[in-house]
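Q: My collaborator sent me two sequences in one message, no labels, and asked for predicted structures for both. Can we handle them in order? The first one she listed is below.
A: Yes, handling them in the order given. First sequence, followed by its structure tokens:
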Amino acid sequence: MKKSKAILLLSFCVSFNTLAAEQCETNFTKEGSFFKGKTFKTWAEVEGVSTAEAYKKIYQQIAKGGWKISSSDKDLGIISAGQDVSYGNGKTAPLNVVVEESGSNSKISISYSISGGVSSPEKAVIESFCKTIGAAKS
């Protein structure tokens, strides 16, 4: 009986992560150009996780990912961070995350901007976004 419950729980977690990953990829957008700069965005809802818990885990994920957190507001669910741009002459690339309540779920929205003349592989951005959102459930 315990084994079947463990398998059921594991399959639930896998299906959850698949759902969040699907939403993350489906809702991904990019605007701009190499010369004007680009903004990447996505969002996904995480089921069964409070906004406080999602915020905490995402904050930790961002810090572990090497981002310099410039400001945060737990009550508003906002995390602002940045990374220095290679060969960017002091430029930084800002990352903003908002964790908000959506019924009994947590909705996580992420945006990342780069200035003109800077590139960031789209696939890597999507993977990073989805990993960050997935951290809320881990």
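Q: And the one she listed second?
A: Here it is, processed independently of the first:
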Amino acid sequence: MAIRRGRSAAGGFLRDFREFALKGNVMDLAIAVIIGGAFGKIVTSFVQDLVMPIVSLFIPGGNWRTARIVLVPGTPEVEGSEKAILIGSFLGSVVDFVIIAFVIYLVIRALARFKRQEEVAEAETAPVDPIVVSQERLTTALDRLTQTLDSRS
């Protein structure tokens, strides 16, 4: 009996999980993560290959990737034995972040503008309530009847 309950609970769990995973929002989120990862690579390449070479003109030594502040010098014959702050790498990451944040801001702003236009279009094409239309017709008919009766008196 306990085994059956375990199997049915597992089957119910798997069924619930399948329904959750195949919902539109989860699938949309998965697609967004994949596209976001690809977009992040494009931005990183843009920063490293186009923006930072221009920035490196202003960094002493000329190569921004190796720009660093050495805290504890290492032995000259052992590569990377020094303790250093990697300014160039950090600067590249900051520029990546700023570009991605700016693009996300532009996308959200465009979506908000589109949503506002959609709401205005819905308000303009909203179906008219038939009760309101009949009340307006009755009011107009009563006004004409009142005017006709007033003109005859």
